[in-house]
Amino acid sequence: MEEQKERPAFRNLRIDTARYQYLGLWEELRIPPPLPPRRCHHSAVMIQNKMYIYGGQDVHIGVLGDLWVLNIDPSSSSNELWTELHPSGDLPGPLCRHSAISRGNLIYLFGGTNNSVENSSIYVLNTENLVWTKINPSSEQPPAIDSHSACFNEADNTMIIFGGYINGVHSNELYIYNIQANEWSRPNSQRKPDPRSDHSAVIYQNYMWVYGGSSESERLSDFWRLNLRNLQWELVQSEGISPGTVSGHSVCVCGDVMLVFGGIREIIKETNSMYTYDFSSNKWLMIQHETQIKDPLSPSEIENYRKLAKQRHTVQYSSKEESAKADLTKQRSAVVGAQTQGRVKGIVPHSRDGHSSIVFEGGMYVFAGDRHQMSFNDVYCYSIQEQVLKTPVAI
């Protein structure tokens, strides 16, 4: 196995929001075709300098079962290219609203749905030989879950699953998969967050932190943490300006700060606002107001894309299935027109939910998502500035 290079550590990270500088911290990655089809509610993990995405859905195309990898190279944008991978083994098939974590060179995928059948299994991808393996645990596995959260707890080598939909009903159950022992457990707590889906969860130090999501009747704005030592929940009473009610957002941890980007507040009310939570001071800070920007596609391009999507449902795949899929992928890539390769500074991502975000070498990378039933396949990077913010200026 190739030894992973040690990445520079973040030091008491703060976000520089003074003097309206946040707009200049965004970059759009202009990547030439081939491009992944547009999607939302996919999974994304980072292994070394590569972002792996799996599945997701487009309301006009359906649920996807493809695997793509993006090579990220901040020092040379000409090396930043998408590649579709074709693994073998026990393929998970089309899935959306699933979760994935990475451990070494392995990707662990759990749950999700193809909008017809829900998945209750774990699939593991070895990124070195590109072979999928379906795991048969030595204990009873959880029921099928989708729209949940998953975190990898490196301290005890476990994958922690929380919330989501079980049999079409919101859940607040906690399931823990011990990778070494290949066993599931279902710990209980006297006090739990309300049942929810499309929330966020991250691990910082000895806690798993959960924010927002959707319940049966509303979107949520509560903030909880799970003590990973005794597996008891605590409601976090924080200070500052929090993201408020939101679901389908993304979160990242950088140093002592959690970044929350995007999400949806109500029907057809997606946002591209961004907030930080400082673990050490227990304070929220808004670092980006909702920003109105030009639609990434013109009305004619959107209509063309939807026509191509309808063709997807009329194709009768036979022995030429792979060729037909390849043709459609080329067509979908062509919708965005010719692109100039490179990074373009100062372009803020459109409002979206169901996207993913990961951190790599001082940047938060945002991929895909959905706005008003129009999915994206774009990539943006927000440069994280290591500056201590002494006197915040309202933006």
Automatic annotation (TrEMBL):
Keyword Ion transport among record annotations: no
Alphabetical keyword list: Kelch repeat, Repeat
InterPro entries, alphabetized: Kelch-typ_b-propeller, Kelch_1
Top-level lineage group: Eukaryota
Gene3D superfamilies: Kelch-type beta propeller
Coiled-coil region: none
Protein's UniProt keywords contain Repeat: yes
Pfam families, per database record: Kelch_1, Kelch_KLHDC2_KLHL20_DRC7
Full protein name: Uncharacterized protein
Phylogenetic lineage: Eukaryota, Sar, Alveolata, Ciliophora, Postciliodesmatophora
